[in-house]
Design a protein that fits this description.
This protein is α+β, with helices and mostly antiparallel strands. The chain has a single domain (12-167), classed as Peptide Deformylase (Alpha-Beta Complex), CATH 3.90.45.10. Helices cover 31% and strands 24% of the residues. It has 5 helices and 8 strands. The strands form 2 sheets. Strands 1-2-3-6-7 form a 5-stranded antiparallel sheet, with helices on both faces. A hairpin with a 7-residue loop joins strand 4 (96-101) and strand 5 (109-116). The protein is globular. The structure holds nickel (II) ion (NI).
């Protein structure tokens, strides 16, 4: 296993479409998955796509962080490490949500990105077994972000408001503004309702 060098925005590998993997069980694919996992843990990150380590193949790995223990074993399974090969994404419905994302290929930056809220994704694991999941929220966001890398797309290209592309170190201003807005909502419920219409 090895920690691999991560490509940063500007490197052409991040702009090209990655190639299908013919045999997920091939030893070199397993070795790549091992190296990607070690690289992701070291970074640290919650997801990584093969083009980010200069390999133009259709494989992503991700592990959405566990926020709390779930009583539903299926949810726990979804929070475990997933290695997804040749993914196919299918948004379920038109509903989008905006939230902050970071990317190991854009170190130090964060952006507020709209993503589909509900998603079905399919693909294969390292043994060639089919993966077919319907997910939502943060899990759906991570999968959309990682699979965009396979199309040569970085998250700023998905943004609709470039004033929301900021340095991570300035997030405290965003948090302060959110708190001020929440206090305003509590003190002026009527005006807030009007503002939303
Ligand atoms: Ni990324």
């Amino acid at each position: 296993m090895a920690i691999l060098k991560i490509a940063r925005i500007g490197h052409p590998i991040l702009r090209r479409r990655a190639e299908e993997i013919a045999d997920p069980t091939a030893p070199e694919i397993h070795a790549l998955a091992d190296d990607m996992l070690q690289t992701m843990v070291d970074a640290p990150g919650v997801g990584l796509a093969a083009p980010q380590v200069h390999v133009p193949l259709r494989m992503v790995i991700f592990r959405p962080p566990t926020i709390q223990e779930s009583a539903d074993p299926r949810e726990d399974e979804e929070r475990q490490l997933t290695i997804l090969i040749n993914p196919v994404l299918e948004p379920l419905g038109e509903e989008m949500a905006e939230d902050w994302e970071g990317c190991l290929s854009l170190p130090g930056l964060r952006g507020k990105v709209p993503r589909y809220l509900h998603l079905r994704y399919r693909g294969m694991d390292l043994s060639g077994q089919a993966i077919d999941r319907t997910v939502e929220g943060f899990h759906a966001r991570v999968v959309q972000h990682e699979c965009d890398h396979l199309e040569g797309i970085l998250y700023p290209q998905r943004m609709t408001d470039m004033t929301k592309l900021i340095f991570d170190s300035e997030m405290r201003h965003v948090i302060a503004e959110q708190r001020a807005a929440e206090q305003y909502e509590q003190s002026e419920p009527t005006e807030q309702e009007e503002a939303e219409t």
